[in-house]
Amino acid sequence: GDPTIETMNDEEMERYWQALDADKDRVGAAYLSIDLMTGIRKTALLKLEWKDIDFENKLILLPGSKAKKGEFDTIPMTADVEEVLRSLPHEEGARWVFPSPNDPSKPRESFRRTAERVKKAAGLPVNFRPIYCLRHTFASRKIAAGVPLYVVADLLTNTPAAAQRYSHLLEETLRQAAEMGKTSRPVKK
Q1: Which residues are bridge partners to 73 per DSSP?
Q2: Is residue 108 pLDDT above 50, yes or no?
Q3: pLDDT at 2
């Protein structure tokens, strides 16, 4: 079968953002954009509560019950993430950032339909997993930008051992860096 495409290149990323901006499901588009900009696991993001968002200190708090490691974690909130969070409908006393449309007392279970629609509109490959790959894209682009693997692991609320799965991206980035600004002997003619 086809290998799974795990990450978006610059061109795909541009088309993805255009598709997100154009999608009719504004809450779903917000969910997908926060996922892409933070790398938060889909289940933790679906279970995010308003009380877990610290706008003052620009942090998203993940209590141990929501973090995979089972310990408390914090994720820095960039200005872009804050803007998306503030754009979401938020009624006084509401618990969930992404409430279930059928029962607001429960968190939303999925944005699969929106994710598939955005993937299609962006013209992404058939084998691109539309939610999982956002986290992988986040990680790979941080690594490619030179963010150390242990810092990427922290941003993903992963143990460094779990972040090793992204080390192939680091190796590729290092290989590309080694090819740049060559200092090797000129080829003899």
Answers
A1: 62
A2: yes
A3: 45
- Token look-up 């986040």 returns 138
CB 42 within 8 A of CB 132: yes
Q: Contact 143/166 with Cβ under 8 angstroms? A: yes
Neighbours of 88 (CB within 10 A): 15
Report whether 169 contacts 152 (CB < 8 A). Answer: no
User: Inter-axis angle of helices 26-38 and 112-121, to 10 degrees?
Assistant: 80
**Cα-only R_g, the chain:** 19
Q: Under DSSP, is residue 73 helix (H, G, I), strand (E, B) or coil?
A: strand
SS3 40: coil
pLDDT digits (tens, 9 = 90+) for 150-167: 788 888 877 666 666 666
Contact residues for 9 (Cβ-Cβ < 8 A; gap 6+): none
Q: Which two tokens stand for residue 67?
A: 């973090």
* Cβ(102)–Cβ(110) below 8 Å: no
| Residue 139: per-residue pLDDT | 85
Average model confidence (pLDDT) for the chain? 85
At residue 88's C-alpha, the angle toward residues 87 and 90, to 5°, is: 120
Map residue 56 onto helix, strand or coil.
coil
Of residues 124 and 157, more confidently modeled: 124
